[in-house]
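Worked Example 4.2. Consider the chain below.
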Amino acid sequence: MLTRSVPAILVLALAMFGVAPYFIAQAPYESTMGLVQKIFYFHVPAAIMMFLATFVCGIASVAYLAKGRAHSDRLAEAAAELTVLFGIITLISGPLWARKAWGVWWQWDARLTSTLVLWLLFSAYLLLRRFGGPGTEKLSAGVALFGMANVPFIYWSVNVWRTMHPKTTVVPSLVPEMRFPFYWCMAAFLLLFLALIKTRVRLAEQQDSLDLLLAEAEG
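Applying the procedure from the previous section yields the following structure tokens:
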């Protein structure tokens, strides 16, 4: 049975996503990009959830390497899956925005390239967990740590190199009419993140229990 809080969290998240278009429509247009800038309200929260999932995976991997607890390993794997999921949303919504704002679908600048590398790293993590065989948990944890170390580079790259992306001061400088729908979408994505990771960890626990019962039955 799923954690009792998950259905309530999921319903609240879906309700917030349902209302979000109204708040986004009420927000003013950005002066240079116009209507297409409103992708920002989904693109940036998805990217932040990708980074959050990366840190959860990395920290859980450290805990697993230090203490060997199965729960930490389950949490790391669940977070890796969410890194890939929210990474897909980020990498699809970004080019949709870029095509209109910059005139190109993709630009090999520091932030875009490093974000793609992060997504590929965690895709490799999941492939390793799926096809690597017994004993790959620790190797996967090492991949997660490498991926987590990439996040600060992605974040600060726009301040260090000249890129197509604006600097990290964009969100703090939002006008109040833009700030409210942005934080509303952030809260909706965060609730979705919590519901998904709780569900995935619980499913992993049930799978491990089932595998143990099957092993005992065969033995």
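The chain has a mean pLDDT of 89. The two ends are 27 Å apart (CA to CA). Compare this with Example 4.1 before moving on.
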